[in-house]
Structures are given as C-alpha cells and as structure tokens.
Design goal:
5-stranded antiparallel sheet; SH3 type barrels; 2 domains; cytoplasm; GMP Synthetase, Chain A, domain 3; 189 residues; 8 strands; alpha+beta; RimP_N_sf; RimP_C; 5 helices; globular
Length: 189
C-alpha cells in the first residue's frame, strides 16, 4: 500500500523537530512498485553530511517500525536539505540564505510592472528583505516587501562576492571569513 506525504509528515515531524530541524517537504514517488520517500529538512546553520546521515538513520528506524511499511512494500529513503531550486517562501528560508545569490520576481506595485532582480539576500525583517546588487562594480541595495515577492530562488553562484557586498548583507567579519575559507577549500578539492 503506497504511503502519502501527509502520512510520512505525521510520522516523522516530531523526530525531525527534536533533532533541531524544520520539516520543509515530503515527496513520495512510486517507481517500479516501490515508494521513494524524499524528506527535505533544514535548520539554521544547515546540516553537514554526518548530521543528515544520522537523521536519516533515525527516520529509517522510525519508518521501519510502522506496520504499513512492511517488506512487501519496500521503500527508498532520502533525507536531504533544500536544493538551490527550492523556492524561498518563508522568512526562515530567506534568513538561512543570507548572503547567497538569489533571483527574485517582484509583483507590480502601483504604477509599475512586474520585474526581476538578481542579487544577494541582505538584511531581513518580518515584512521586508534587502537585495544587495553588484551593478558593474557599483553596489546598490533595494528593499522589497516580502508580500510583493512572487518567486524567489537561490542561484548557483560562480563568483566570489566582495567583502563590501557581504557586509551590506549583514554578515559579520567572522562569517565572511568562514565562507571565504569554505570557498577556497571547495576550489582546491
């Protein structure tokens, strides 16, 4: 018997929250007579591979104890963090991606047309987000009401932002250095 996303959500949400994560999404696909369960989780500071592997093991143990998920109805489990193609829909999504490059579609305001911006996620409050844009070496900041955002997606970033851009995003010197060190490590791998 195939299991539904709401059933999986109900089964795993408490465990996910106890481990310090938010349950972002549950996707169930049926392929070759087998359920493929993808559980998307996130938290402030993210989760490294070891943490996600531990969470995956705990979720697997929990699901294996459910009678509806017997050996007859085998399933494949993937526990993952949101990818770059996941839309930013809640303030916590924006906050967790501060300083990252994002493409934003903004609904028309009075006397204007819908428009698109590309920049870095800056400072955020409950109603507005700042987008820090590098316009051919000139840095500009635009404040956008979150309610006006019709679509926002983190983009793959092939450039290293300047310290000035990251400072305008609200990152402190320690976080900027941590990100730059991570970027250097990834380039050397």
């Amino acid at each position: 018997m195939p299991i539904s996303p709401p059933q999986v959500s109900e089964l795993v949400e408490k465990l996910v929250v106890e481990q310090g994560f938010d349950l972002e999404d549950v996707i169930v696909n049926r392929r070759d007579g087998q359920d493929e369960l993808t559980i998307v989780v996130d938290r402030d500071g993210g989760g490294d591979l070891d943490v996600l592997a531990d969470l995956s093991n705990r979720i697997s143990e929990l699901l294996d104890a459910v009678p509806e998920l017997t050996d007859e109805d085998a399933y494949v489990l993937e526990v993952t963090s949101p990818g770059v193609d996941r839309p930013l829909t809640l303030p916590r999504h924006w906050r967790r991606n501060t300083g990252r490059r994002v493409a934003v579609d903004v609904a028309p305001l009075e006397g204007s047309e819908e428009r698109s911006l590309t920049g870095r996620i800056g400072k955020l409050d409950e109603t507005n987000v700042e987008i820090v844009m590098n316009l051919r070496g000139r840095i500009a900041v635009e404040t956008i009401p979150l309610e006006a955002v019709t679509r926002a997606v983190v983009q793959v970033d092939f450039s290293q932002p300047s310290v000035a851009e990251l400072e305008l995003c609200g990152l402190d010197a320690e976080e900027i250095e941590r990100r730059r060190a991570r970027d250097r490590t990834q380039l050397n791998d």
